[in-house]
């Protein structure tokens, strides 16, 4: 197709989806910097010890929920197509290493879905989103000119929990309900795509599922910001359709352990946990284990591939 297959290259997700038949999955996986069944890191980043084999990964997936339709949630105000087809999404962000593996399955046929595009995006250790640093800085408390505990709406939002400029009503930062505290559940809700306000693209990326329906990312443990528990956003595309928008969550004991060390410890005043988050569900929890010098988290996404509502 005339473009150089290097991880980290800006390649439109839509272009990748449209080009699957002409480029072939092998070419796309090469562009993503993937190995054969092992966790990969991008060129230019320091490679960590790879303690997890393909067999280990399969065994972990066997222990998590399968063949169940994954609940949809709001995409939040900070989603946009970042044009980053890559496995290592860290760039210069510091934090505890997290290798994230997602298996995409057809919820009706209970089989893997190859050639699906999976995007993820999340905040850094200080609670900032790339492409939206100005908007997200007011939601993270201690950094970026943030607010005192229990106060302040995100920068650009109306006092009292209004949504950021350009976002549809019904969601606060990362999908927290807008309006008064304790507002309505936004599961299944949606918001408009963000127009980026800066050139940063850290902690955003996309991968194409392999023959087993699996994608793998190298990232850091997400930070937190006011009004939401710790989470990673994810979106699954089949052809040109968004068939799932969801989030994944983390065990609170692990969150506490990781946030006791730097750079997370510099960000204090966390106010929202799994048990009081408006979107959290047990089915969104990652299965996590120690892996090399970091952690490996796995989760299954069951999608309605034919979009018939079942």
In short:
It comes from Micromonospora radicis. This protein is of the alpha+beta class and 310 residues long.
Low-confidence stretches: 1-11, 17-50, 141-189
Q: pLDDT average, as an integer?
A: 74
Distance between the first and last residues' Cα: 37 Å
CATH class categorisation: Mainly Beta
- Quickly give the CATH architecture: Sandwich
Q: What is the count of β-strands?
A: 9
Order of helices and strands: HHHEEEHEEEEHEE
Structure characterization notes:
- This is Protocatechuate dioxygenase.
- InterPro entries: Intradiol_dOase_core.
- By secondary structure, the chain is of the alpha+beta class.
- The chain has one domain: Aromatic compound dioxygenase (Protocatechuate 3,4-Dioxygenase, subunit A).
- Helices cover 13% and strands 20% of the residues.
- Helix 1 crosses helix 2.
Task: Name the descriptors.
ferric iron binding, Intradiol_dOase_core, 310 residues, 9 strands, oxidoreductase, dioxygenase, 13% helix, disordered N terminus, 5-stranded mixed beta sheet, 5 helices, 4-stranded antiparallel beta sheet, Protocatechuate 3,4-Dioxygenase, subunit A, alpha+beta
Strand and helix layout:
Layout: H1 13-23, H2 25-31, H3 54-62, E1 97-106, E2 111-112, E3 117-121, H4 133-136, E4 204-208, E5 214-220, E6 231-238, E7 241-249, H5 252-259, E8 287-291, E9 294-303
Parallel strand pairs: 1-9
Antiparallel strand pairs: 1-2, 1-5, 3-4, 3-6, 6-7, 8-9
Biased composition (Gly residues): 141-191
Keywords: Dioxygenase, Oxidoreductase
Region (Disordered): 133-198
């Amino acid at each position: 197709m005339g473009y150089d297959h290097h991880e980290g290259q800006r390649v439109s997700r839509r272009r990748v989806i449209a080009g699957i038949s002409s480029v072939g999955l092998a070419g796309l996986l090469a562009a993503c910097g993937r190995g054969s069944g092992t966790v990969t890191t991008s060129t230019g980043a320091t490679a960590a010890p790879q303690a997890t084999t393909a067999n280990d990964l399969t065994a972990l997936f066997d222990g998590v929920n399968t063949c169940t339709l994954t609940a949809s949630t709001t995409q939040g105000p900070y989603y946009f197509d970042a044009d980053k087809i890559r496995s290592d999404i860290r760039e210069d962000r510091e934090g505890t290493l997290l290798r994230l593996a997602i298996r995409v399955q057809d919820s009706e046929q209970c089989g893997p879905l190859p050639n699906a595009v999976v995007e993820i995006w999340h905040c850094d250790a200080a609670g900032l989103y790339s492409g939206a640093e100005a908007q997200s800085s007011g939601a993270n408390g201690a950094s970026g000119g943030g607010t005192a505990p229990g106060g302040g709406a995100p920068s650009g939002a109306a006092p009292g929990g209004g949504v950021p400029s350009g976002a549809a009503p019904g969601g606060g930062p990362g999908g927290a309900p807008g309006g008064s505290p304790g507002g309505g559940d936004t599961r299944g809700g949606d918001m408009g795509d963000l127009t980026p306000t800066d050139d940063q693209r850290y902690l955003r990326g996309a991968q194409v599922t392999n023959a087993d329906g699996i994608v793998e990312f190298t990232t850091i443990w997400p930070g937190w910001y006011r009004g939401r528990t710790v989470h990673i956003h994810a979106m699954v595309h089949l052809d040109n359709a968004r068939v799932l928008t969801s989030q994944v969550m983390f065990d609170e004991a692990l969150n506490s352990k990781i946030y006791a060390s730097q750079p997370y410890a510099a960000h204090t005043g966390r106010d929202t946990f799994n048990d009081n988050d408006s979107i959290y569900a047990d089915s969104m929890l990652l299965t996590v284990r120690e892996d090399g010098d970091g952690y490996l988290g796995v989760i299954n996404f069951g999608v309605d591939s034919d979009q018939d509502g079942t």
